[in-house]
Every structure is written in structure tokens, then in C-alpha cells.
Design a protein that fits this description.
Layout lengths: L1 E5 L6 H10 L3 E5 L4 H4 L3 H4 L7 E4 L2 E3 L2 H11 L14 H28 L7 H19 L14 H15 L10 H9 L2 H12 L6
Parallel strand pairs: 1-2
Antiparallel strand pairs: 1-3, 3-4
Helix pairs in contact: 1-4, 1-7, 1-9, 4-5, 4-7, 5-6, 5-7
């Protein structure tokens, strides 16, 4: 059985969305954020202390962008994973990792220094600078996207990775400055049944103590 340790709308949402798109059975453990501080024993599950951690039997994964690809490749075949023999394979891997390494990273600085740190440690200028950095990267990425999806002419795990960065941006109030091409894309992603089921799953799952 697959078990996902998840905080609402955290990076673990990528894995939750992927599980719903694939229709796989799973156990969802909801936690308060950040679990490394609020959930006793969490570092025994994930020594990094980060969110998410996912177990597939004895196998542990901690990288959210990799989880979707793993699930689609292992439990496929699935059109959600672009295969090496497809022309779009390079674009697929690029957008899969871009969602995390390029787009989500600067937002974590905004999150930390506007919401997570105590008031005396917050850094407004740093948060503003990294918010602008994220938006600049998003503008550049929007010029590389396909028409309806980021690549391959279909919805893939790369869209889940990329679109999660837009979900986080919305949470942080950065969505008002999305590039024009990104706005209809993000609206379409939110209308997917898998996205809606993932949102519903996190809303109804009981929270762990913490």
C-alpha cells in the first residue's frame, strides 16, 4: 500500500494529485505544517524533515517532483508519463524538474520570510525580491510551454509539477501577476477531476495529532 504524509496544499499535493489521476489506492496521513516541529517522530519517517514523504511498501521517497513520475512509470503504462522514445521526452523531464527547482524554490523564501518566521525575523525586502524572481522565471517559462499543456500535447506528470508551483503562488498572493498565457492554463488545471479529487481528499482526511 502507498502511504503519503501530507500537509494541505504543500509540495505533497503533487503526489496526491498524481495518485488521484492514476486512480491508485493509498493511505493519506494529514499533518500540521511544518511537521518537523509539530509532529513527534516525523524525522524518523523523513530524516530531511521536509514535506512530503511517501512510502510504497519498503520504498521511501522525499522528492515531490519525482513521485509522480515514479507512480506513473511503476503503475503504468500511463499517458501521464512521457516515454524515452517520444519526441517530447526531453521537454517532459525539463518541465517536471522546472516545477520544483526553478519555480517552487524562490517561493519557499517568500513563504518563510512572510509567514513562517516570527515577526522579528521576517524579511520583507527578501520576500519581495524572491517573489519578483519567481514571476520573472514564470514569464520565461510561459514562453516555453505548449498550447494547452506544458509539453507533449497532453496532460502529464510535468503539468502536475508545474501547476503545483501556481497553486503555491496563489497561496502566497503572487497570482495577480501571472503572465497572460499562464492564466487560462492554471484555470484549466483546476478544472481537472484529479485536481478536484485531490483537494477533496485533503479536506476530508482526518488530521494526525500535532
Amino acid at each position: 500500500m502507498i502511504t503519503l504524509y501530507h500537509c494541505a496544499d504543500a509540495r505533497s499535493f503533487r503526489a496526491l494529485w498524481a495518485l488521484e489521476e492514476l486512480g491508485l489506492p493509498y493511505d493519506l496521513v494529514m499533518m500540521p505544517f511544518p511537521p518537523r516541529a509539530l509532529v513527534p517522530g516525523y524525522r524518523d519517517l523523513n530524516p530531511l524533515g521536509t514535506v512530503p514523504v511517501m512510502f510504497d511498501g519498503p520504498h521511501r521517497m522525499t522528492e515531490s517532483a519525482a513521485m509522480g513520475h515514479y507512480l506513473g512509470a511503476k503503475y503504468g503504462p500511463s499517458d501521464l508519463v512521457v516515454r524515452p522514445e517520444e519526441d517530447a521526452f526531453a521537454d517532459y523531464l525539463n518541465f517536471l524538474h522546472m516545477g520544483e527547482a526553478t519555480l517552487t524554490f524562490p517561493q519557499t523564501i517568500v513563504l518563510r520570510y512572510t509567514r513562517l518566521e516570527p515577526p522579528e525575523r521576517r524579511a520583507t525586502q527578501a520576500a519581495e525580491d524572491y517573489g519578483k524572481w519567481f514571476l520573472a522565471r514564470l514569464r520565461a517559462a510561459s514562453g516555453m510551454m505548449g498550447e494547452a499543456f506544458v509539453c507533449a500535447g497532453r496532460f502529464t506528470m510535468a503539468d502536475i509539477s508545474f501547476a503545483y508551483a501556481l497553486l503555491l503562488a496563489e497561496t502566497l498572493g503572487l497570482d495577480a501577476d501571472f503572465p497572460p498565457r499562464v492564466v487560462p492554463y492554471w484555470q484549466a488545471m483546476q478544472q481537472r477531476d484529479g485536481f478536484k479529487r485531490a483537494k477533496a481528499a485533503q479536506a476530508k482526511a482526518p488530521a494526525t495529532a500535532g
